[in-house]
Amino acid sequence: MTGDSRPTTTLWRPTGPVELELVRESGWRAWPPRLPEQPIFYPVLDEEYAVKIARDWNVKHSGAGYVTRFEVDTEFLRTYPVRQAGGRTILELWVPAEELDEFNAHIVGEIEVVHAFR
Questions:
Q1: Which residues pair with 27 in a beta bridge?
Q2: H/E element holding 9?
Q3: DSSP readout, 49-113?
Q4: What pLDDT digit, counting tens, does each position of 74-109 carry?
Q5: DSSP secondary-structure letter at 13?
Q6: How far apart are the first and last CA of the chain?
């Protein structure tokens, strides 16, 4: 929870260098629009899961992987059911690409990089 009066939920997102640069260009305030082949934006609820994806997938596919952490208005997140993508801690939110602007509007504070892998 931030110093703001709204309760927030911490989310993580594993990302590669291209997406991270677009986040930086937004002033660390928003995720970029999805590409046509990316109909869903997948933030995750577990830092360890985000680390695994950034380290094992992003590094392999783009030479670097990053884990970001950010806060989102908890009440707003209730519209997105938690999806279990595998094991008990492999939990994601599935945000349709066309709702990403609205999702970004509910980010509280800045998106921050908490891990980097090369």
A1: none
A2: strand 8-15
A3: HHHHHIIIIIHHHHS-EEEEEEEEEHHHHTTS-EEE-SSTT-EEE-EEGGGHHHHHHTEEEEEEE
A4: 999 999 989 998 777 789 999 999 999 999 999 999
A5: E
A6: 31
Are 34 and 100 spatial neighbours (Cβ–Cβ below 8 Å)? yes
Q: Which residue has the tokens 């989310």?
A: 11
Whole-angstrom Cα distance, residue 20 to residue 6?
Answer: 26
pLDDT at 4: 52
Q: Angle 105-109-110 (CA atoms, 0-180°, nearest 5)?
A: 95
In tens, the pLDDT along 43-80 reads 999 999 999 999 999 999 999 999 999 999 999 999 99
